[in-house]
Write a structure and sequence with these properties.
The chain contains 7 helices and 9 strands, in the order αααβαβαββαβββαββ. With 199 residues, it is an alpha/beta fold.
C-alpha cells in the first residue's frame, strides 16, 4: 500500500499553524490568480490545503463558490476565523467526491504527498471533477525528495516525473506545465513547477 501522506509534515502544520501563517499573512498565490481566468464565473472550487484561508478569501471575493479544506484542525480553525464560515478538515486521501467540482486547486500542498502516493491522490482529484473541470497545483522542483529543516516532506517533482505521474492518474484532455524561480514560504529561494490539467 503506497504512503499517501507524511505524518511528520501534518504534525508540523498542526503545531505551528499560527506562526507559519503569520510569516506571510495576506499573500495570495500569483500562480492561482493566473489560473483562475480559465474558470467560469461562479465555478465550484475545492481547495486542498487552504492553510489560513488567504487564497480562499480571494477566490470568494472574485465570486467563486469555494469549498476550503485543510489536513489539520489548527489550519482549519485559522481559515474559518479569516473567512467567517466553516472550513473542513480533509486529508487528501479521504477525498471521495464524484464529479462534484468545476476545479480542484492545491497551491503548495500536493508537494507534501510522497511520490508513491501521488498517482492515487491525483486519481481522486480527477474523479471529483466534473467533465471539463480543471485541476491546478504548484510544486517545489529542482531537488531530491526528502524533509526540510522543519521536518516537512517535499516530493520535489521534476517536470519529467510530473508528466509521468499525471499520465497515470486520470484521462486528462490537456495538461499545461510552467517553471520559474521564486521563493518558499519562509523566503528561501525555490524553483517552482505549476500544473494546470483539464478533465
Amino acid at each position: 500500500m503506497p504512503h499517501l501522506y507524511d505524518a511528520a509534515t501534518l504534525d508540523f502544520y498542526e503545531g505551528n499553524a499560527r506562526p507559519y501563517s503569520n510569516a506571510r499573512p495576506d499573500e495570495v498565490s500569483s500562480d492561482l490568480l493566473a489560473f483562475l481566468p480559465k474558470l467560469k464565473a461562479g465555478s465550484r472550487i475545492l481547495e486542498l490545503g487552504c492553510g489560513s484561508g488567504c487564497d480562499a478569501a480571494e477566490m470568494l471575493r472574485l465570486g467563486f463558490d469555494v469549498d476550503a479544506t485543510d489536513g489539520t484542525q489548527a489550519m482549519v480553525s485559522l481559515a474559518s476565523e479569516r473567512l467567517g464560515r466553516p472550513v473542513r478538515v480533509l486529508r487528501f486521501d479521504n477525498l471521495d467526491e464524484r464529479e462534484s467540482y468545476d476545479a480542484v486547486v492545491a497551491c503548495a500542498s500536493l508537494l507534501h504527498v510522497p511520490h508513491e502516493g501521488l498517482p492515487a491522490i491525483l486519481t481522486r482529484i480527477w474523479d471529483s471533477l466534473k467533465p471539463g473541470g480543471w485541476h491546478f497545483a504548484s510544486y517545489k522542483t529542482a531537488g531530491s525528495e526528502g524533509w526540510d529543516a522543519h521536518r516537512r516532506y517535499y516530493n520535489h517533482l521534476s517536470r519529467d516525473v510530473a508528466e509521468r505521474i499525471y499520465r497515470k492518474a486520470g484521462n486528462w484532455t490537456s495538461v499545461e506545465y510552467d517553471e520559474y524561480d521564486g521563493v518558499g514560504h519562509f523566503s528561501a529561494p525555490s524553483r517552482w513547477l505549476t500544473v494546470a490539467a483539464k478533465k
